[in-house]
Write a structure and sequence with these properties.
By secondary structure, this protein is an alpha+beta fold. Helices cover 17% and strands 31% of the residues.
C-alpha cells in the first residue's frame, strides 16, 4: 500500500511479502522505489524527495507488550543505496492503519490502540486513532502543518526515546561541541540530530528551503560538520547514511519555541521530521546547549514535568510535549504528539524477474 503518514509518504509492505534474504530484499526495494541512482526516481514509486522516498515494513511483533514490529528504510534520493539506520515518526503514524487495512491486526470499538516496536532503534510507541467496523477512519478535524486540509487524529505516545541510534541522549558526552569553529549540540532523542546556530553560517535561518538548497557553500560546510559530528556521535562514517540530521536553529518568529531549517541529511526539509523535532526540542530546553539562548520557553512551575514546545519550520509549526522524570537530572521519559494519516493506494508493484534471481 502507498500511504501518507504525517507529512511524508511511503510504500508499506507486510514483511511476509518480501524476501527473507536482506540483500535480495534490498535489491527488490530499490526497484520498487526507483532508487538506483536516478534522482528523479522515474522508474519506480519514489517521489524524488526524501519525504516521499520512504519504505515501511510491518510484521506481527515478537516483543512482549507490542502488537506490531515496524522497520523503516530511507531510499536515498540520487544514490544507489538504502539506509535502515534512522527511524521515521511520520511513516510510523500510519503503520497502525496499515496493520488493520492489511488484516494483520483486528480491533473492535471506536478507537484502536496499537503498540509498535521500532526495530531500527528498539523504541516503542502507542498509536491511538478512530476506527469504524474495524477499519481506520481518515476523515476528521485534526490539522497538521505541511499537509493540506484536515484528517482524523493519530495520537503518538513515545516512551524512552533517548539514544535511539547512538545509545545516548548526548552521544558525544557533551551538551555543546565545536566542529570546524561551529557551535553544535549533538542529541539523540528518537533521531540523531546536530543542532546548530544558523547565524554562525552567515544566514538568518529564515530562508526558504529552495534558497538554502541552492547555497552550495552552506551545504559544503554542513556536510563537513556532519561527517565529524557523526563520528563523534558514535555513528561511524556517515557519508552514505541519512543520519545525523542537521538542524539550523534561530530565534522563533511566530510565537514558537525555536525556528528551524533541517537538512535530511543534505537536502533542506520543507517541514521537519517527527523525531527530529523531538530531538531539536530536547536540545532547546537544556541550559547548556548551543541553541538554548535562541529558545523562548513557556512559563512553567519548576516542579512541572510536562514541557509543551512549538517547533517552527518552513511549513508552519510542530507541537511536541516532553515528559521529564520528577527530580531527575534531565531524564526524559517520553514524548507525545499529534499526526494524521491516509491510505492512498493499494495493489501490486512490478519488479523485474532478474532482480529476484539476484541480478
Amino acid at each position: 500500500m502507498q500511504m501518507r503518514g504525517g507529512s511524508s509518504k511511503g510504500v508499506y509492505f507486510l514483511a511476509s511479502d518480501l524476501p527473507a534474504d536482506i540483500m535480495t530484499r534490498n535489491n527488490v526495494l530499490k526497484w520498487v522505489m526507483g532508487a538506483y541512482g536516478d534522482p528523479r526516481q522515474i522508474d519506480g514509486l519514489g517521489g524524488a524527495d526524501p519525504l516521499t522516498s520512504k519504505i515501511a515494513i510491518i510484521d506481527a511483533s515478537s516483543h512482549d507488550g507490542c502488537d506490531i514490529d515496524y522497520t523503516f528504510i530511507q531510499a536515498l534520493v540520487g544514490q544507489d543505496d538504502l539506509d535502515e539506520t534512522p527511524n521515521c515518526g511520520n511513516l510510523l503514524s500510519a503503520v497502525g492503519a496499515f496493520a488493520l487495512e492489511s488484516g494483520l491486526l483486528k480491533r473492535d470499538g471506536d478507537t484502536a490502540h496499537i503498540d509498535v516496536f521500532m526495530t531500527n532503534s528498539g523504541n516503542r510507541c502507542r498509536l491511538s486513532f478512530p476506527i469504524s467496523d474495524g477499519l481506520p477512519l481518515y476523515d476528521g478535524d485534526a490539522r497538521i502543518d505541511g499537509v493540506f486540509g484536515t484528517s482524523a487524529p493519530v495520537m503518538c505516545h513515545y516512551a524512552n526515546l533517548a539514544g535511539s541510534a547512538s545509545g545516548s541522549l548526548w552521544p558525544t558526552g557533551s551538551k555543546r561541541d565545536d566542529f570546524l569553529g561551529f557551535s553544535a549540540t549533538c542529541v539523540d532523542n528518537g533521531m540523531p540530530v546536530v543542532a546548530l546556530r544558523a547565524t554562525e553560517f552567515g544566514i538568518s535561518g529564515h530562508e526558504t528551503p529552495d534558497a538554502l538548497n541552492a547555497n552550495g557553500d552552506l551545504k559544503q560546510k554542513l556536510e563537513a560538520v556532519r561527517l565529524l559530528a557523526g563520528d563523534a556521535m558514535g555513528l561511524g562514517d556517515v557519508a552514505g547514511k541519512a543520519v545525523p540530521k542537521m538542524c539550523l536553529v534561530s530565534a522563533p518568529v511566530n510565537g514558537g519555541t525555536i525556528h528551524t531549517r533541517t537538512f535530511i541529511p543534505k537536502i533542506c526539509h520543507k517541514a521537519i521530521g517527527v523525531l527530529g523535532a523531538v530531538s531539536a526540542a530536547t536540545a532547546a530546553i537544556h541550559p547548556d546547549s548551543a541553541i538554548y539562548d535562541f529558545a523562548t520557553l513557556p512559563q512553567s512551575d519548576e516542579n512541572d514535568n510536562q514541557k509543551a514546545l512549538t517547533i517552527e519550520h518552513p511549513s508552519g509549526v510542530f507541537d511536541v510535549t516532553l515528559t521529564l522524570a520528577s527530580g531527575s537530572d534531565f531524564d526524559i521519559l517520553g514524548a507525545g504528539l499529534l499526526r494524521t494519516a491516509r491510505l492512498l493506494a493499494r495493489g501490486e508493484v512490478f519488479v523485474p524477474k532478474s532482480v529476484w534471481k539476484g541480478a
